[in-house]
Amino acid sequence: MREYGTVTAVDGIDLSLARGEFLTIFGPNGAGKTSLLALLAGALRPNCGQVWLRGETLDFGEVEWRHRIGVLSHQGFLYGHLSAEENLRFYGQLFGLSDLDDVVNHKLQHLGLQDRAGSLVRDLSHGMKQRLALARALLHDPDIVLLDEPYTGLDPSAAIVLQGVLSDLKDGQRTIVMVTHNLTEGLALATTAAIMNRGRFVWQGKRAEIEGDFGQFYYGVIEGEE
């Protein structure tokens, strides 16, 4: 549970994910989705309850486990006065990566940014910044990836690139949790889906359980909770 004063942002969610699962969380603004991701990332502490990682309770005083998690958030955590390549090198050094040249070059190429490696981040388009932020989140090859609205503000071509990268992450080894308003793309990637409203999961199930028009199903669930 996570509360902000009298507001309960995350209310009694019991979530267990196995290695290789891709959970997509849908829900209206203010449902608590970003707060839930922050709890999973260790950026927020629960008011009550526990967060477990690979069978162990997270110790918020330790930092080693954070190296196993990659987070893409609204902030991006990019430095505008540095180039795309310099940003990745900076984070690579923080993670103590030994093969930094190869890793940085690979991530830039994978995200279609090799031609903009020397460009300052402040000069990049929103879509390019979003792809670079994803490269930063994946730089240290985390086995848990948390994505908060990765499609926001992307044009169709950038969304296609992102969809391909996220599809590649479904390698059976990583656990991925994505929050998105994009019903079509979000459901296409998911092995498991959840609908969140007012801090709770009001529906959760396997992708294969969803039949017919998911948009109609989604709005029916939300309206039923109003």
Summarize the structure.
By secondary structure, this protein is an alpha/beta fold.
Description:
The longest helix is centred in the last third of the chain and has 14 residues, at 156-169. The model has no long low-confidence stretch (mean pLDDT 89). The strands form 3 sheets. The protein has a 6-stranded mixed sheet, with helices on both faces. It has a two-stranded antiparallel ribbon with strand order 1-2. 34% of the residues lie in helices and 19% in strands. A hairpin with a 2-residue loop joins strand 1 (2-4) and strand 2 (7-10). It contains 7 helices and 10 strands. The protein is of the alpha/beta class and 226 residues long. It has a single domain, classed as 3-Layer(aba) Sandwich (Rossmann fold), CATH 3.40.50.
